[in-house]
Amino acid sequence: MRSRRALLYVPGDEMHKIQKAIGLGVDSICLDIEDGVALNHKEQARGTIAEALGALDFGRSERLVRINPVGSGMEAEDLRIAINAHPDGIVIPKVREAGQVQWISDRVGELERATGRPDGDVILIALIETARAIVNLGEIVRASPRLQALIFGAEDLAGDIGAVRTRAGWEIFYARSAVVTHAAAYGLQAIDMVFLDFKDAEGLRAEAIQAAQMGYTGKQVIHPAQVGPTQEAFTPGAEEIAYATQVVEAAVRHQQDGRGAFALDGKMIDAPVVKIAEWVLQRARAAGKI
Ligand code: COA
Ligand code: MG
User: Which residue puts its alpha carbon closest to atom 8 of ligand 1?
Assistant: First the structure.
């Protein structure tokens, strides 16, 4: 699976921002037709997205389109325009239940066939940002083989449950943990909430590091200045990689000597610690650090 350390939203009706986004070296670019676009600009966003996907070179950045929610009345046309423009994937907002993801998946399959793309080519990412989605996570993660990642949407969730958003985030902490846990249970990536205060680089860094420590593999971003610090937070540092390598190598040696638990630099190492070290190495490989 490709690395999605930062997923940058760009309003689909703003060609200038799209042109800016493709030069940032960001892992994923998400061209938005949903909440970043005014109701009277939806049509314009569809047209601009089709033009951008057809004409611009996105380099190594993934090309995603966020459609309007299932049931909004706009989703079918959004999807038709998007798939005709050959994106890498579709982001489905405000998912409430697995059936909605299945419906999109089936529709994507029909459009893939109609446009001559290989079956299963277009991937799906589900935005988990309603109370219903949290309750239905167990089914949503199994809704479609196209599904590669879950995104956690904190602002919408807070609105849905009547919570007040705070910097500490305890009001959304159960949901933030539930998303990463369900994603891990089914081999999906988990992409963390947006940090709205785009001028506060330190605040962003702290929240992104916390997300990485929770097991998140990436974070949504909304401004070019957030791309670098976010991608860095989800990339293991040289020291971390060196230590993880040491742990894994020592574990192999001790296994050969018939020992499951051993000491390294005064700390006990056994199977779960080795597994965490292996995760660090996997992230480092995905980010091209080894
Ligand atoms: N993608 C690409 N380029 C962006 C960008 C984005 N998400 N956000 C800002 N830029 C560009 C601006 O166009 C500007 O370019 P310029 O210097 O060539 O004029 C530059 O980066 C600096 O932007 P800045 O002036 O600091 O911000 P702004 O006031 O223009 O925009 C936002 C602030 C929040 C409106 C803007 O960042 C944005 O549109 N973010 C995405 C919003 C969105 O999609 N929300 C829905 C998902 S949560
Ligand atoms: Mg949202």
Answer: 223
pLDDT digits (tens, 9 = 90+) for 142-182: 999 999 999 999 999 999 999 999 999 999 999 999 999 99
Choosing from 20, 63, 92, 204 the residue with most ligand 1 atoms within 8 A of its CB, the one to mutate for a pocket test is 20
Which residues does 216 contact at the CB level (< 8 Å), separation at least 6? 152, 180, 190, 191, 192, 234
* Ligand 1, atom 28, residue with closest C-alpha: 223
Nearest to 264 by CA among 279, 276, 252, 246: 246
- Domain positions in the chain: 6-233, 238-286
DSSP type of residue 69: P
Low-confidence spans in the chain with pLDDT less than 50: none
Task: Provide the CATH number for the domain formed by 6-233 in this structure.
Answer: 3.20.20.60
Q: Are the C-beta atoms of 36 and 60 separated by less than 8 Å?
A: no
